[in-house]
């Protein structure tokens, strides 16, 4: 935490530091950059020595990632981890600074698995803005009333052992397990659990929940209308149940033993109600570096880090990048100009796929046939927001160069993947956007989540279309989940057909692991379920 000076109150010092942070954010956005200290000092309008002090303070409270790189020139890697909205939320409601009680000591024996990662990892706290890796870690540390297992798309009960639904389907009673304890040994309270869930009632996370009550070992959901997708919503890790005082303390199969900018260590929780993981510990090591293929997950063991071992690979391509247009009344693009930009983007995406083996054509259900149309003259200026990854950085640079050759200057703003639901003010000034969605039909529920939550959708897509879609969703959730998913797939195809989104390419993810490691069950983007992996020593050949 920032230490209080003699004459400046902590709040005033925090606000002053926030002003300096905004200068960094305006200069570097949310991209990971190689910088020299003098450049940072110039940005902050101070001496290099004081700039170092400011960077250390921002790093201590989690606003930035900052680390020196080896070699001459004394360059550093720096990345702003919050946008203005999230920064303000952190100042208005700072995280409880009390020391978390020591967790339970894990049982001895078992295996230690190591995952190198290329950037610091944000706090493992259930929240709507969590990105994919953070959501996966939330699954390992926190649990809700329901959850997804083994990468399945069908939810199963978790903290609840039984559920009863009323005849009119508007009252759901979840009966919770007995004897649950938090990772820090505090007893689990059903009342606290209900209080946490109540904060989501009526929001995009639980849109049809009117009220939540608790009675001994039972939590009761009162709905405004039937919602057959309620178990899916409760299995979403963003509505998992954290400790009421210490939000990084969970009740899942692994507890957080250590979390710094150097990495995070998870150890199995002896009080876990389910099957005990065979893994004793999981370490994600932060090895700050530039990455060419950010979609590779490397799994190592204590033995494989010391001596080379035969490896296996597993791949999946469960997300696709898309181009989206601002279709609101503020849009400066005609239909013909949107089609022109679509053709340019598809041409560039095809060129990238020929050069990068980890980029693939989108699946057939995401493609729409249509006749070629004449190109149209573009406006002199366009603005674009994009989800920042190594491949989208390449695409945006190619896109900007191409547009400049035809007399159109593109102003691009990178948005960190945890900030995609950022406030509408970010999107209102944008003409186009580059984002991503799930390409797995069975995971079509993520499309509904984007419809309900994304500020980009709320600004970009016509208001009447949004109202019609919500009405369709309201009627559809009365039905069984499979019929609801078919509607979501149809809506996604409708958005593609009408150029609300333009699929460009799919990203292939790869898991590399020693051949001795068994029990691989992958969640999205090839992250394995830590609770299921183990090592076969007998059949391993070195």
Main attributes of the structure:
globular; alpha+beta; five-stranded mixed sheet; about 25% strand; seven-stranded mixed sheet
Please, could you describe this protein's structure?
The protein is an alpha+beta fold. It is 30% helix and 25% strand. The strands form seven sheets. Strands 14, 16, 17, 18, 19, 20 and 21 form a seven-stranded mixed beta sheet that branches. A five-stranded mixed beta sheet has the order 11-12-13-4-15, with no helix packed on it. Strands 7-8-10-9 form a four-stranded antiparallel beta sheet, covered by helices on one side. Strand 11 (254-260) and strand 12 (263-268) form a beta hairpin. The longest helix has 21 residues, at 335-355.
Strand-helix topology:
Blueprint: H1 10-28, E1 33-36, H2 37-44, H3 48-60, E2 64-68, E3 75-80, H4 84-92, E4 111-117, H5 132-141, E5 146-147, E6 156-157, E7 160-165, E8 171-176, H6 190-198, E9 209-215, E10 218-223, H7 230-235, E11 254-260, E12 263-268, E13 279-286, E14 296-298, E15 300-301, E16 311-325, H8 335-355, E17 359-360, E18 381-387, H9 390-405, E19 409-415, H10 424-428, E20 432-438, H11 445-453, H12 455-460, H13 463-476, H14 481-497, E21 501-514, E22 517-518, E23 522-523, E24 527-528, E25 534-535
Parallel strand pairs: 4-13, 14-21, 18-19, 18-20
Antiparallel strand pairs: 1-3, 2-3, 4-15, 5-6, 7-8, 8-10, 9-10, 11-12, 12-13, 16-20, 16-21, 17-21, 22-25, 23-24
């Amino acid at each position: 935490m920032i230490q209080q000076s003699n004459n400046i109150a902590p709040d005033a010092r925090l606000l002053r530091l926030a002003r300096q942070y905004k200068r960094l954010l305006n200069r570097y956005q949310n991209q990971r950059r190689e910088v020299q200290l003098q450049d940072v000092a110039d940005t902050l309008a101070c001496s290099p020595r004081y700039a170092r002090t400011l960077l250390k303070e921002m790093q201590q409270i989690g606003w930035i990632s900052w680390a020196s790189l080896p070699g001459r020139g004394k360059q550093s890697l720096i990345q702003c981890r919050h946008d203005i909205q999230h920064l303000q939320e952190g100042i208005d409601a700072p995280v409880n600074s009390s020391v978390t009680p020591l967790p339970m000591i894990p049982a001895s024996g078992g295996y230690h698995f190591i995952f190198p990662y290329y950037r610091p990892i944000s706090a493992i706290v259930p929240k709507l803005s969590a990105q994919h890796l953070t959501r996966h870690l939330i699954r390992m540390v926190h649990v809700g009333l329901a959850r997804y297992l083994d990468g399945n798309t069908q939810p199963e009960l978790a903290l609840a052992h039984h559920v009863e639904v009323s005849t009119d389907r508007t009252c759901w009673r979840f009966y919770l397990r007995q004897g649950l304890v938090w990772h820090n040994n505090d007893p689990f309270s059903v009342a606290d659990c209900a209080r946490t869930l109540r904060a989501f009632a009526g929001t995009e996370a639980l849109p049809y929940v009117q009220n939540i009550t608790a009675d001994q070992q039972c939590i009761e959901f009162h709905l405004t209308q039937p919602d057959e997708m309620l178990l899916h919503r409760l299995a979403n890790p963003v509505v998992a149940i954290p400790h009421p005082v210490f939000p990084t303390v969970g009740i899942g199969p692994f507890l957080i033993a250590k979390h710094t900018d150097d990495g995070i260590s998870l150890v199995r929780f002896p009080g876990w109600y389910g099957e005990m993981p065979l893994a004793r510990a999981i370490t994600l090591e932060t090895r700050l570096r530039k990455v060419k293929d950010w979609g590779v997950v490397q799994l190592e063991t204590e033995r494989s880090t010391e001596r080379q071992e035969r490896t296996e690979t597993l791949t999946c391509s469960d997300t696709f990048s898309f181009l989206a247009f601002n279709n609101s009344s503020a849009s400066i693009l005609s239909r013909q100009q949107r089609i022109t930009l679509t053709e340019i983007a598809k041409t560039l995406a095809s060129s990238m796929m020929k050069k990068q083996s980890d980029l693939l054509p989108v699946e057939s259900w995401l493609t729409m046939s249509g006749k070629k149309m004449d190109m149209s003259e573009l406006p002199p200026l366009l603005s674009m927001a994009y989800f920042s990854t190594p491949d989208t950085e390449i695409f945006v640079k190619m896109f900007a160069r191409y547009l400049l050759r035809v007399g159109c200057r593109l102003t691009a703003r990178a948005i960190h993947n945890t900030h995609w639901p950022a406030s509408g003010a970010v999107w209102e000034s944008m003409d186009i956007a580059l984002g991503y969605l799930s390409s797995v039909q069975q995971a079509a529920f993520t499309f509904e989540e984007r419809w309900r939550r994304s500020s980009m959708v709320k600004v970009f897509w016509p208001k009447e279309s949004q109202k019609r879609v919500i009405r369709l969703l309201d009627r559809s959730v009365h039905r069984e989940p499979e019929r609801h998913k078919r509607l979501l797939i149809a809506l996604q195809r409708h958005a593609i057909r009408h150029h609300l989104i333009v699929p460009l390419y799919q990203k292939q993810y790869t898991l590399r692991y020693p051949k001795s490691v068994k029990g691989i069950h992958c969640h999205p983007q090839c992250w394995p379920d830590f609770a299921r992996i183990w090592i076969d020593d007998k059949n391993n050949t070195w």
